[in-house]
Amino acid sequence: MAARAWYCENSRRGSYSSTAKALAARTRRADIKNQFGAGKLSITEVLDLVPDDEAIGRLRVMDLLESVPGVGEIRAHTLIDRLGISPSRRLRGLGRKQRIALVEHFQQSPPKTKE
After folding, report:
1. CB 65, CB 79: distance < 8 Å
2. pTM passes above 0.85
3. Which of 41, 60, 72, 87 could be disulfide-bonded to 35 (CB atoms 3.0-4.6 Å)?
């Protein structure tokens, strides 16, 4: 019986720490999306964060694009189709050519900023 109590106690402790870690990652992704949508971060700066920040690497390209004012699900989907990026692709999973295509797109037509 003591082994079961030990397991339950350690499971709860692990659950709390994993919940806190997940909350921190979601908060980090939301912060990056807000900064990108407000024009405080460029696409190059966001992509440069990916190797060092696991939370940013797990951000979906669609979610990042939808954070730009005036870009909704339809425009984001049209853009990633044109760039050859899967709708479920995460920033960490982008290939070299896909990264270049995203950077070039935002250099040619920078996103409108939130007021």
Report:
1. yes
2. no
3. 41
**Residue tagged 């082994």 (tokens):** 3
pLDDT at 9 over 60: no
Specify whether the CB–CB gap between 112 and 69 falls below 8 A. yes
> What does the pLDDT look like over 23-34, one tens digit per residue?
999 999 999 999
> 3-class secondary structure for the chain?
CHHHHHHHHHHHHHHHHHHHHHHHHHHHHHHHHHHHHCCCCCHHHHHHHCCCCHHHHCCEHHHHHHCCCCCCHHHHHHHHHHHCCCCCCEHHHCCHHHHHHHHHHHHHCCCCCCC
Are 56 and 32 in contact by the 8 Å Cβ rule? The answer is yes
37 neighbors 114 (Cβ within 8 angstroms): yes
